[in-house]
Amino acid sequence: MKHHLRCRKVARMTLSRRAHRVLGLVLLLPICGWALTGFVFFVKPGYAAAYAGLRVRAYPLEGVSIPEPRADWLEVRMVRTVLGDHLLVRTADGPRHLDPATLTPRGLPDEPSIRRVVEDAISTDPDRYGTIASILAHEGESPGASIKTTTGVDVELDWTTLALQQSGKDTRRIDALYRIHYLQWTGVRTLDRIVGVAGLASLIALAILGLRLAFRGRRAGATS
Length: 224
What we know:
By secondary structure, this protein is α+β, with helices and mostly antiparallel strands. Helix content is about 50%, strand content about 20%. Helix 1 packs antiparallel against helix 7 (about 190-224) and helix 2 packs across helix 6 (about 170-180). The protein is elongated. The two termini are about 15 Å apart.
């Protein structure tokens, strides 16, 4: 009877070792990815430039008076750029870009004007941005423009909020490392969630099997 129980224990330990070995091999690539990307996230090389803020250059508001706020305005901001004065308001329906003189919507300007305001903004860091290579304006509910620079940096202009957002090769590289770290390998959101949950579950199972083998090994050594 004791021999039979001992054989069963040995069989279970053998099965646990095999499962532990298989899970270890399956998780070898994700674990290496977690370790390498975790080191990058800890050191953060090149983060300052990759995620640096880019703003439309503002000039002093000399001799400007803000119009009387309307009842539906939740927030008001006046900005002066190379294109003149801009009235940016926020309402319950969202942000609006108005002409301060007439309080009418200020539409997306022509390409030369877009070039002027973006060139004025990127001139603060010519090493990163270089000069403008192309401009693609887009109207619609979110008017703005997509700008590419000679250094490979993409700049997005949101005309409604007069905001700029930049991303270069370094930004895209770091974003790719984040996707590797969080097991977002397929690009399909639902599938990536399944892969992520499976990876975490496998890691927990690997740890549990390791603990069981460690404690069983101690017990076996004690009884022998």
